[in-house]
TrEMBL record, chain A:
One of its GO terms (cellular component) is plasma membrane. The keyword Transit peptide does not apply. Pfam families: MbhE, MnhB. The chain crosses the membrane at residues 21-41, 82-99, 119-139, 145-166, 178-201, 221-244. It comes from the Bacteria. PANTHER family: NA(+)/H(+) ANTIPORTER SUBUNIT B, NA(+)_H(+) ANTIPORTER SUBUNIT B. It is found in: Cell membrane. Belongs to the CPA3 antiporters (TC 2.A.63) subunit B family. Residues 114-236 form the Na+/H+ antiporter MnhB subunit-related protein domain. It is a multi-pass membrane protein. This is Multicomponent Na+:H+ antiporter subunit B. Residues 22-106 form the MrpA C-terminal/MbhE domain. Keywords: Cell membrane, Membrane, Transmembrane, Transmembrane helix.
UniProtKB/TrEMBL annotation, chain B:
It is found in: Cell membrane. This is Multicomponent Na+:H+ antiporter subunit C. Belongs to the CPA3 antiporters (TC 2.A.63) subunit C family. The chain crosses the membrane at residues 6-24, 36-54, 74-95. It comes from Halanaerobium saccharolyticum. It is a multi-pass membrane protein. Keywords: Cell membrane, Membrane, Transmembrane, Transmembrane helix. Its main location: membrane. One of its GO terms (cellular component) is plasma membrane. It holds the Pfam family Oxidored_q2.
Length: 252, 111
Protein backbone atom coordinates (compact mmCIF):
# COMPACT_ATOMS: atom_id res chain seq x y z
CA UNK A 1 0.00 0.00 0.00
CA UNK A 2 2.84 2.32 0.77
CA UNK A 3 4.35 4.06 -2.16
CA UNK A 4 7.94 5.04 -1.51
CA UNK A 5 8.14 8.80 -1.71
CA UNK A 6 11.45 8.79 -3.54
CA UNK A 7 10.18 6.97 -6.61
CA UNK A 8 7.01 8.96 -7.06
CA UNK A 9 8.58 11.88 -8.95
CA UNK A 10 10.32 9.40 -11.21
CA UNK A 11 7.03 7.68 -12.03
CA UNK A 12 5.45 11.03 -12.73
CA UNK A 13 8.24 12.15 -15.05
CA UNK A 14 8.12 8.77 -16.82
CA UNK A 15 4.37 9.20 -17.28
CA UNK A 16 4.91 12.62 -18.73
CA UNK A 17 7.62 11.36 -21.08
CA UNK A 18 5.34 8.60 -22.31
CA UNK A 19 2.52 11.06 -22.88
CA UNK A 20 4.85 13.38 -24.73
CA UNK A 21 6.13 10.60 -26.96
CA UNK A 22 2.63 9.35 -27.71
CA UNK A 23 1.35 12.81 -28.61
CA UNK A 24 4.42 13.46 -30.77
CA UNK A 25 3.93 10.22 -32.68
CA UNK A 26 0.25 10.97 -33.26
CA UNK A 27 1.02 14.50 -34.40
CA UNK A 28 3.71 13.25 -36.76
CA UNK A 29 1.20 10.82 -38.25
CA UNK A 30 -1.36 13.57 -38.75
CA UNK A 31 1.31 15.78 -40.31
CA UNK A 32 2.30 13.02 -42.74
CA UNK A 33 -1.33 12.44 -43.70
CA UNK A 34 -1.81 16.17 -44.25
CA UNK A 35 1.29 16.35 -46.39
CA UNK A 36 0.16 13.42 -48.53
CA UNK A 37 -3.29 14.89 -49.00
CA UNK A 38 -1.85 18.27 -49.97
CA UNK A 39 -0.11 16.51 -52.84
CA UNK A 40 -3.51 15.32 -54.10
CA UNK A 41 -5.02 18.80 -54.09
CA UNK A 42 -5.45 20.73 -57.33
CA UNK A 43 -3.44 23.91 -57.56
CA UNK A 44 -5.08 27.27 -57.18
CA UNK A 45 -5.59 27.54 -60.94
CA UNK A 46 -7.50 24.28 -60.91
CA UNK A 47 -10.27 25.69 -58.74
CA UNK A 48 -13.48 27.26 -59.98
CA UNK A 49 -12.62 30.95 -59.82
CA UNK A 50 -15.73 32.50 -61.34
CA UNK A 51 -16.52 34.77 -58.42
CA UNK A 52 -12.94 36.00 -58.06
CA UNK A 53 -12.65 36.73 -61.76
CA UNK A 54 -15.93 38.62 -61.69
CA UNK A 55 -14.77 40.76 -58.74
CA UNK A 56 -11.41 41.46 -60.34
CA UNK A 57 -13.01 42.41 -63.65
CA UNK A 58 -15.95 44.51 -62.55
CA UNK A 59 -15.29 45.33 -58.89
CA UNK A 60 -14.09 48.82 -59.71
CA UNK A 61 -17.04 49.45 -61.99
CA UNK A 62 -19.59 48.12 -59.49
CA UNK A 63 -18.40 49.85 -56.34
CA UNK A 64 -16.02 52.64 -57.36
CA UNK A 65 -13.49 51.40 -54.83
CA UNK A 66 -9.90 51.07 -56.03
CA UNK A 67 -9.09 48.62 -53.26
CA UNK A 68 -10.80 45.40 -54.27
CA UNK A 69 -10.48 43.87 -50.80
CA UNK A 70 -12.39 46.79 -49.33
CA UNK A 71 -14.93 46.37 -52.11
CA UNK A 72 -15.46 42.76 -51.09
CA UNK A 73 -15.61 43.59 -47.38
CA UNK A 74 -17.95 46.59 -47.41
CA UNK A 75 -19.97 46.10 -50.55
CA UNK A 76 -20.30 42.50 -51.72
CA UNK A 77 -20.02 41.03 -48.24
CA UNK A 78 -21.03 44.03 -46.14
CA UNK A 79 -23.61 42.01 -44.23
CA UNK A 80 -20.84 39.63 -43.18
CA UNK A 81 -18.75 42.56 -41.96
CA UNK A 82 -21.72 43.69 -39.90
CA UNK A 83 -21.77 40.27 -38.27
CA UNK A 84 -18.03 40.50 -37.73
CA UNK A 85 -18.32 43.81 -35.87
CA UNK A 86 -21.16 42.26 -33.87
CA UNK A 87 -18.70 39.56 -32.77
CA UNK A 88 -16.34 42.29 -31.51
CA UNK A 89 -19.26 43.92 -29.75
CA UNK A 90 -20.14 40.62 -28.11
CA UNK A 91 -16.55 40.03 -27.00
CA UNK A 92 -16.31 43.53 -25.52
CA UNK A 93 -19.64 43.11 -23.72
CA UNK A 94 -18.59 39.75 -22.31
CA UNK A 95 -15.21 41.03 -21.13
CA UNK A 96 -16.69 44.10 -19.48
CA UNK A 97 -19.37 41.96 -17.85
CA UNK A 98 -16.84 39.43 -16.52
CA UNK A 99 -14.37 42.04 -15.26
CA UNK A 100 -16.91 44.61 -14.12
CA UNK A 101 -15.90 46.37 -10.93
CA UNK A 102 -17.01 49.85 -10.05
CA UNK A 103 -13.69 51.22 -8.95
CA UNK A 104 -11.45 54.04 -9.98
CA UNK A 105 -8.20 52.49 -11.15
CA UNK A 106 -5.21 53.20 -8.96
CA UNK A 107 -2.57 54.47 -11.29
CA UNK A 108 1.11 53.96 -11.45
CA UNK A 109 3.02 57.18 -11.93
CA UNK A 110 3.95 56.31 -15.47
CA UNK A 111 7.34 56.44 -17.08
CA UNK A 112 9.99 59.16 -17.00
CA UNK A 113 9.64 62.79 -18.06
CA UNK A 114 11.48 62.23 -21.34
CA UNK A 115 9.11 59.48 -22.44
CA UNK A 116 6.08 61.55 -21.49
CA UNK A 117 7.22 64.59 -23.50
CA UNK A 118 8.18 62.50 -26.52
CA UNK A 119 4.81 60.80 -26.56
CA UNK A 120 3.12 64.20 -26.17
CA UNK A 121 4.78 65.31 -29.41
CA UNK A 122 4.06 62.05 -31.23
CA UNK A 123 0.42 61.48 -30.26
CA UNK A 124 -1.19 63.80 -32.86
CA UNK A 125 0.78 62.11 -35.61
CA UNK A 126 -0.27 58.64 -34.47
CA UNK A 127 -3.89 59.80 -34.43
CA UNK A 128 -3.48 61.35 -37.88
CA UNK A 129 -2.00 58.13 -39.21
CA UNK A 130 -4.90 56.11 -37.78
CA UNK A 131 -7.46 58.47 -39.29
CA UNK A 132 -5.65 58.37 -42.64
CA UNK A 133 -5.68 54.57 -42.70
CA UNK A 134 -9.38 54.60 -41.82
CA UNK A 135 -10.57 57.19 -44.32
CA UNK A 136 -8.46 56.00 -47.26
CA UNK A 137 -9.59 52.39 -46.99
CA UNK A 138 -11.08 52.41 -50.49
CA UNK A 139 -7.97 53.89 -52.15
CA UNK A 140 -4.92 52.41 -50.42
CA UNK A 141 -4.22 49.36 -48.26
CA UNK A 142 -6.00 49.66 -44.95
CA UNK A 143 -9.51 50.22 -43.79
CA UNK A 144 -11.67 50.50 -40.72
CA UNK A 145 -10.32 47.58 -38.74
CA UNK A 146 -6.66 48.44 -39.24
CA UNK A 147 -7.09 52.15 -38.50
CA UNK A 148 -9.18 51.34 -35.45
CA UNK A 149 -6.39 49.20 -34.04
CA UNK A 150 -3.97 52.12 -34.45
CA UNK A 151 -6.40 54.41 -32.59
CA UNK A 152 -6.70 51.84 -29.81
CA UNK A 153 -2.90 51.78 -29.57
CA UNK A 154 -2.99 55.47 -28.57
CA UNK A 155 -5.14 54.68 -25.57
CA UNK A 156 -2.92 51.73 -24.62
CA UNK A 157 0.27 53.83 -24.87
CA UNK A 158 -1.37 56.53 -22.74
CA UNK A 159 -2.16 53.97 -20.05
CA UNK A 160 1.43 52.74 -20.01
CA UNK A 161 3.29 56.03 -20.26
CA UNK A 162 1.12 58.48 -18.31
CA UNK A 163 -0.48 55.99 -15.95
CA UNK A 164 -4.00 54.67 -16.27
CA UNK A 165 -5.67 57.48 -14.26
CA UNK A 166 -4.72 59.96 -16.99
CA UNK A 167 -6.32 57.78 -19.60
CA UNK A 168 -9.38 57.45 -17.37
CA UNK A 169 -9.73 61.23 -16.97
CA UNK A 170 -9.12 62.18 -20.59
CA UNK A 171 -11.01 59.39 -22.33
CA UNK A 172 -13.47 58.05 -19.83
CA UNK A 173 -15.15 54.68 -20.41
CA UNK A 174 -18.38 56.52 -21.13
CA UNK A 175 -16.71 58.33 -24.06
CA UNK A 176 -15.37 55.05 -25.40
CA UNK A 177 -18.75 53.37 -25.06
CA UNK A 178 -20.38 56.27 -26.88
CA UNK A 179 -17.80 56.04 -29.68
CA UNK A 180 -18.31 52.30 -30.04
CA UNK A 181 -22.09 52.57 -30.10
CA UNK A 182 -21.87 55.48 -32.53
CA UNK A 183 -19.72 53.48 -34.91
CA UNK A 184 -22.09 50.51 -34.83
CA UNK A 185 -25.11 52.79 -35.36
CA UNK A 186 -23.37 54.45 -38.32
CA UNK A 187 -22.95 51.05 -39.93
CA UNK A 188 -26.58 50.09 -39.27
CA UNK A 189 -27.87 53.49 -40.35
CA UNK A 190 -26.07 53.24 -43.68
CA UNK A 191 -27.58 49.79 -44.11
CA UNK A 192 -31.07 51.14 -43.49
CA UNK A 193 -30.39 54.03 -45.87
CA UNK A 194 -29.55 51.36 -48.41
CA UNK A 195 -33.02 49.85 -47.91
CA UNK A 196 -34.75 53.21 -48.31
CA UNK A 197 -32.82 54.49 -51.30
CA UNK A 198 -31.54 51.47 -53.21
CA UNK A 199 -33.91 48.73 -52.18
CA UNK A 200 -31.62 46.34 -50.31
CA UNK A 201 -29.92 46.25 -46.91
CA UNK A 202 -26.38 47.71 -47.07
CA UNK A 203 -26.63 48.35 -50.79
CA UNK A 204 -24.02 50.86 -51.88
CA UNK A 205 -25.54 54.35 -52.00
CA UNK A 206 -25.43 55.41 -55.60
CA UNK A 207 -25.84 59.15 -55.13
CA UNK A 208 -22.65 59.38 -53.07
CA UNK A 209 -20.39 58.15 -55.84
CA UNK A 210 -17.98 60.63 -57.35
CA UNK A 211 -14.98 60.51 -59.63
CA UNK A 212 -12.98 57.35 -59.02
CA UNK A 213 -9.86 57.90 -56.96
CA UNK A 214 -11.03 60.96 -55.01
CA UNK A 215 -11.35 60.80 -51.25
CA UNK A 216 -15.14 61.00 -51.14
CA UNK A 217 -16.12 58.39 -53.68
CA UNK A 218 -17.18 54.76 -53.69
CA UNK A 219 -20.63 55.40 -52.25
CA UNK A 220 -21.06 54.54 -48.59
CA UNK A 221 -17.79 52.61 -48.25
CA UNK A 222 -15.70 55.45 -46.67
CA UNK A 223 -18.44 56.20 -44.13
CA UNK A 224 -18.77 52.55 -43.18
CA UNK A 225 -14.98 52.45 -42.83
CA UNK A 226 -14.96 55.41 -40.46
CA UNK A 227 -17.79 53.97 -38.38
CA UNK A 228 -16.11 50.56 -38.14
CA UNK A 229 -12.79 52.22 -37.30
CA UNK A 230 -14.16 54.11 -34.33
CA UNK A 231 -16.07 51.05 -33.21
CA UNK A 232 -13.03 48.76 -33.31
CA UNK A 233 -10.71 51.34 -31.73
CA UNK A 234 -13.05 52.07 -28.85
CA UNK A 235 -13.81 48.38 -28.40
CA UNK A 236 -10.15 47.35 -28.14
CA UNK A 237 -9.45 50.27 -25.78
CA UNK A 238 -12.32 49.12 -23.56
CA UNK A 239 -10.94 45.56 -23.54
CA UNK A 240 -7.47 46.76 -22.55
CA UNK A 241 -8.90 49.10 -19.96
CA UNK A 242 -11.03 46.40 -18.34
CA UNK A 243 -8.05 44.08 -18.04
CA UNK A 244 -5.66 46.68 -16.62
CA UNK A 245 -8.27 47.83 -14.12
CA UNK A 246 -8.28 44.45 -12.50
CA UNK A 247 -4.50 44.16 -12.49
CA UNK A 248 -4.02 47.42 -10.71
CA UNK A 249 -6.62 46.57 -8.12
CA UNK A 250 -4.72 43.42 -7.25
CA UNK A 251 -1.33 45.10 -7.17
CA UNK A 252 -2.07 47.95 -4.81
CA UNK B 1 5.29 23.47 -52.06
CA UNK B 2 7.15 25.10 -49.21
CA UNK B 3 3.99 26.80 -48.00
CA UNK B 4 2.31 23.44 -47.33
CA UNK B 5 5.31 22.28 -45.33
CA UNK B 6 5.50 25.48 -43.29
CA UNK B 7 1.74 25.34 -42.70
CA UNK B 8 1.99 21.78 -41.38
CA UNK B 9 4.93 22.61 -39.10
CA UNK B 10 3.24 25.71 -37.65
CA UNK B 11 -0.10 23.99 -37.24
CA UNK B 12 1.40 20.99 -35.47
CA UNK B 13 3.47 23.27 -33.25
CA UNK B 14 0.33 25.11 -32.18
CA UNK B 15 -1.57 21.87 -31.69
CA UNK B 16 1.24 20.46 -29.56
CA UNK B 17 1.16 23.54 -27.35
CA UNK B 18 -2.62 23.22 -27.09
CA UNK B 19 -2.51 19.56 -26.07
CA UNK B 20 0.66 19.19 -24.02
CA UNK B 21 1.15 22.45 -22.16
CA UNK B 22 -0.80 22.78 -18.94
CA UNK B 23 -0.39 26.54 -18.65
CA UNK B 24 -3.63 28.00 -19.98
CA UNK B 25 -1.97 31.11 -21.42
CA UNK B 26 0.35 28.88 -23.42
CA UNK B 27 -2.74 27.05 -24.69
CA UNK B 28 -4.15 30.35 -25.95
CA UNK B 29 -0.82 31.08 -27.64
CA UNK B 30 -0.95 27.66 -29.29
CA UNK B 31 -4.46 28.35 -30.55
CA UNK B 32 -3.26 31.63 -32.04
CA UNK B 33 -0.31 29.91 -33.73
CA UNK B 34 -2.74 27.46 -35.35
CA UNK B 35 -4.85 30.38 -36.53
CA UNK B 36 -1.83 32.16 -37.96
CA UNK B 37 -0.84 28.99 -39.79
CA UNK B 38 -4.24 28.74 -41.46
CA UNK B 39 -4.19 32.40 -42.49
CA UNK B 40 -0.67 32.03 -43.87
CA UNK B 41 -1.70 29.01 -45.87
CA UNK B 42 -4.82 30.64 -47.34
CA UNK B 43 -2.89 33.72 -48.42
CA UNK B 44 0.08 31.83 -49.84
CA UNK B 45 -2.17 29.33 -51.62
CA UNK B 46 -4.09 32.08 -53.41
CA UNK B 47 -0.91 33.84 -54.53
CA UNK B 48 -0.69 33.44 -58.30
CA UNK B 49 2.18 35.86 -58.73
CA UNK B 50 0.03 38.83 -59.67
CA UNK B 51 -0.15 42.35 -58.36
CA UNK B 52 -1.67 43.35 -55.00
CA UNK B 53 -5.40 43.51 -55.71
CA UNK B 54 -5.66 47.29 -55.63
CA UNK B 55 -6.20 49.28 -58.82
CA UNK B 56 -3.80 52.11 -59.54
CA UNK B 57 -5.04 55.26 -61.21
CA UNK B 58 -4.03 55.56 -64.82
CA UNK B 59 -2.34 52.21 -64.93
CA UNK B 60 -3.74 49.01 -66.37
CA UNK B 61 -2.79 45.92 -64.41
CA UNK B 62 -3.31 42.66 -66.22
CA UNK B 63 -3.03 40.14 -63.41
CA UNK B 64 -4.30 40.52 -59.86
CA UNK B 65 -4.07 38.26 -56.88
CA UNK B 66 -7.44 37.00 -55.69
CA UNK B 67 -9.07 39.51 -53.29
CA UNK B 68 -11.62 37.09 -51.84
CA UNK B 69 -9.27 34.98 -49.65
CA UNK B 70 -7.63 38.17 -48.40
CA UNK B 71 -10.98 39.60 -47.31
CA UNK B 72 -11.88 36.30 -45.61
CA UNK B 73 -8.52 36.32 -43.81
CA UNK B 74 -9.15 39.84 -42.57
CA UNK B 75 -12.44 38.65 -41.09
CA UNK B 76 -10.68 35.70 -39.51
CA UNK B 77 -7.99 37.86 -37.91
CA UNK B 78 -10.58 40.08 -36.25
CA UNK B 79 -12.57 37.12 -34.94
CA UNK B 80 -9.34 35.52 -33.67
CA UNK B 81 -8.38 38.66 -31.77
CA UNK B 82 -11.83 38.83 -30.16
CA UNK B 83 -11.82 35.21 -29.04
CA UNK B 84 -8.25 35.48 -27.71
CA UNK B 85 -9.23 38.54 -25.64
CA UNK B 86 -12.26 36.74 -24.23
CA UNK B 87 -10.19 33.63 -23.40
CA UNK B 88 -7.54 35.70 -21.63
CA UNK B 89 -10.25 37.46 -19.64
CA UNK B 90 -11.65 34.12 -18.51
CA UNK B 91 -8.13 33.06 -17.50
CA UNK B 92 -7.75 36.26 -15.43
CA UNK B 93 -11.02 35.44 -13.66
CA UNK B 94 -9.92 31.83 -13.12
CA UNK B 95 -6.66 33.01 -11.59
CA UNK B 96 -8.58 35.21 -9.20
CA UNK B 97 -10.92 32.36 -8.33
CA UNK B 98 -8.55 29.44 -7.86
CA UNK B 99 -5.12 31.06 -7.67
CA UNK B 100 -3.57 29.14 -10.54
CA UNK B 101 -3.55 29.14 -14.33
CA UNK B 102 -2.27 25.58 -14.57
CA UNK B 103 -5.13 23.44 -15.79
CA UNK B 104 -3.99 20.37 -13.86
CA UNK B 105 -3.80 22.20 -10.55
CA UNK B 106 -7.20 23.88 -10.60
CA UNK B 107 -9.16 22.97 -7.50
CA UNK B 108 -12.45 23.90 -5.99
CA UNK B 109 -14.45 24.08 -9.18
CA UNK B 110 -16.76 21.29 -7.99
CA UNK B 111 -18.17 23.29 -5.10
Amino acid sequence: MEIPTETQPEVESLNKLMKKTLVSVVLAGVALALYRSFALMPGYQGLNLGLSNYIIESGLKDTGSLNLITAVLYDYRAFDSLGESTVIFGAVSGIVLILSRKMLPVSSKGLSFIVKRTLGIMTPFIALFGLYIMSHGHLTPGGGFQGGVILAAISIIFSIVYGSAFDYRRYSPQTKTALETGGALTFLGLGLAGILMEGAFLQNLGFLTAETGTLISAGSIPYINIGVGFKVGAGLAIIFYSMIQKTFEEDF
Amino acid sequence: MFNNLIFIILFMLGFYALVMKTNLIKNVIGLNIMEAAVFFWVISFSDVGGEVSIHKLGEEVTKFNDPVPQALTLTGIVIGASTAALLLTLIIELNKFSGTIDREKIEGLND
